[in-house]
Amino acid sequence: MFTFEHHTLRKQGVVILDDISLHIAAGERVALLGASGAGKSTLLQLMREQHPDEIAWCPQDGAMVPPLSVFHNIYMGSLDRHNALYNLRNLIYPKAKERRAIRTIANALGIGEKLFTSIDRLSGGQAQRTALGRALYAQKETLLADEPVSSLDELQGGNLLRHTLSTHTTAVIALHDQFLALSCFDRVIGLRNGKILIDQPAASLNHDDLLPLYGQASPT
Prior knowledge:
Blueprint: E1 2-11, E2 14-24, E3 29-33, H1 40-50, E4 55-58, H2 70-75, H3 84-92, H4 96-108, H5 124-137, E5 142-146, H6 154-166, E6 170-174, H7 178-184, E7 187-192, E8 195-201, H8 207-210
Parallel strand pairs: 3-6, 3-7, 4-5, 5-6
Antiparallel strand pairs: 1-2, 7-8
């Protein structure tokens, strides 16, 4: 699904990714771990560029349209499935079947009561759920997401993450939460300073194994 062979990326003379080699197959659920600035977001962007039309994308900033409602922002995940006239009609006067389908997603994400509330009136966690809802409504088999549950507590984030993973065949998700990475995913790829330090099955790792990603020594 995604392949990199000795890939190095520099921006303005600064190395962002350093000699990255990895292969991610269809059907894998992969957590990307590492401190801020490790290269996780850049790696996700490069993966997206490999299959732009096959990816449900949830960026770190959400990329929501603040004046528009939860409904409208989630609906935008389906723009490429319909013609311009159909999309315009639904953005002005939503069809009943679209309202039902999007309300089902919003209810599953715990924001059903906010369906026609504008994004600028939501909490950070509610906006983040809306961004995930848009990715879900894209109805793609592969999800790439950058810190999609960082504004939620561990219980809410875990429930939402498991629901999201259950709706996609393949997923690569950047996280800070190590517990969720080890408990919800098949594989963990850990980055530090643009290099891959860890690439192992999640079941073979524990929290001590992840300490070097954050500049800490593992206990002996």
